[in-house]
Task: inverse folding
């Protein structure tokens, strides 16, 4: 007797994923809040909870968080460095940081990259950085100078792998071509702005380059500054440093469609909207580990559940259509 066929369900979510020579957790914990909306004690609690739940991939930047009154930059790196030193778990972690946006270390000249990496190593209290990103491309510098400087740092053992963030498809392609031609370190990671309400910031030529060269993508703003957690609704007032940006999506038809689809899928799986939004990202081509931050331990379980939620084809089609 014929039976109905349910929507197909992908296999189990891997507990770790390859990224160049690295092995990373399905979620990359955003460190932008450390020293900003999360003080040191709370940051330690979040990091403890993240690693206790199986996470190992931590994302930060030398520029976090110079934009906060009273800060000068490097606060996040210092907290992470103090934390792993206190816990004695550096070898269990994959720490990613970035160069190029801190006002006193702005740009991607070879001299600046080399000085900035030493500053980051000191704040992070480590001998090596697992993944080192160019935070924003600096088109005043030839890719040959940038890649050659990064390659020197890899050869010196100061960094293990390199990545790029906020870069055009053309400059990414040029960088990869130069690395291949000269036999130098090559980008293995890309950090694009990408989420259910911002798809054209990655899909298209940039994603095509990533796919062609096997780059792993770690989307930032994966929850659209909190909008995709579902807590922003008409008439609500959310206490968050990023509430203004998140609430803007409520005014768009796409934002409201995405919320409705998130609600439907979340109810179907008895999951949080944030988990669903991150799981959709994780299911997209080239994505390795979406980035999301937690300013309290209470916010972490919904993010970590990304590692176990398996969306069906029907779920993915519904979310993709709503976000078009």
Result:
């Amino acid at each position: 007797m014929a039976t109905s066929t349910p929507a197909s369900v992908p296999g189990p979510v891997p507990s770790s994923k390859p990224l160049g020579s690295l092995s990373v957790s399905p979620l990359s914990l955003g460190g932008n809040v450390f020293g900003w909306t999360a003080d040191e004690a709370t940051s330690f609690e979040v990091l403890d909870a993240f690693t206790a739940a199986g996470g190992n991939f931590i994302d930060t930047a030398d520029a976090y968080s110079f934009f906060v009154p009273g800060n000068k930059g490097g606060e996040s790196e210092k907290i992470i460095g103090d934390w792993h030193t206190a816990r004695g778990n550096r070898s269990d972690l994959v720490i990613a940081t970035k160069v190029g946006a801190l006002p006193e270390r702005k740009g991607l000249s070879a001299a600046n990259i080399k000085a900035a990496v030493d500053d980051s190593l000191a704040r992070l209290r480590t001998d090596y950085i697992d993944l080192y990103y160019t935070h924003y491309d600096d088109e005043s510098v030839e890719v040959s100078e940038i890649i050659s400087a990064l390659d020197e740092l890899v050869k010196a053992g100061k960094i293990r792998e390199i990545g790029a963030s906020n870069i055009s498809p053309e400059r990414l392609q040029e960088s990869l071509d130069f690395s291949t031609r000269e036999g130098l370190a090559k980008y293995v990671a890309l950090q694009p702005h990408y989420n259910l309400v911002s798809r054209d910031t990655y899909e298209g030529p940039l994603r095509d380059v990533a796919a062609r060269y096997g780059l792993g993508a770690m989307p930032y703003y994966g929850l659209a500054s909190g909008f995709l957690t579902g807590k922003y609704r008409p008439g609500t007032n959310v206490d968050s440093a990023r509430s203004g940006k998140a609430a803007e999506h409520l005014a768009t038809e796409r934002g409201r469609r995405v919320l409705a689809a998130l609600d439907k899928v979340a109810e179907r799986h008895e999951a949080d909207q944030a988990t669903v939004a991150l799981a959709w990202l994780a299911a997209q081509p080239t994505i390795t580990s979406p980035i999301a931050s937690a300013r309290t331990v209470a916010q972490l379980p919904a993010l970590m559940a990304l590692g176990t939620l398996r969306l069906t084809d029907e779920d993915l089609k519904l979310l993709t259509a709503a976000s078009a």
User: Anything to note?
Assistant: The first strand starts at residue 17 and ends at 19. The chain is about 40% helix and 10% strand.
